[in-house]
Structure formats: structure tokens, C-alpha cells
Specification:
By secondary structure, the chain is of the alpha+beta class. The protein is built from 2 helices and 4 strands. It has one domain. It has a two-stranded parallel sheet. Strands 2-4 form a two-stranded antiparallel sheet. The longest helix is centred in the middle third of the chain and has 18 residues.
Length: 71
Amino acid sequence: MNLQEAIEARHSVRKYIDKPISQDIIDILQAKIEECNKLGNLHIQLVTNEPKAFKGKMAYGTFSGVSNYIS
């Protein structure tokens, strides 16, 4: 198997709890992300309520219950 074949064969299977994050937790995460972005000159983002993120052709494996993530 060459490198390209290995990349194409690699995949992940994950199952997450489909449970909303409370607004208090979202606010805490957003504040910490903003702090990290300023300190490190970064562009980290918290994405919430986006169930299509890990679907489709470009998805890396099989994920279920994902609607919140940090990118």
C-alpha cells in the first residue's frame, strides 16, 4: 500500500451524545477561545448546532451525534 492508498483507506468511527450544550458553557468556551485567539494570533472557532459538519464526501469516517465542534 502506498501513501495515497493509506490516506484513502484511513477512516474513523465515532458516536457522540446528541445533547445540546448549555448557553453558560458556550459562553465560557467562547471567552476562552477569544483569549487564546488574541494571545496566539489564532482563528479558532466554536461551531454549535451544525449537524452537517461531518457528513458528505469529505467526511473523515463515520460520525454520529456531532453538532458542536471547535475548528
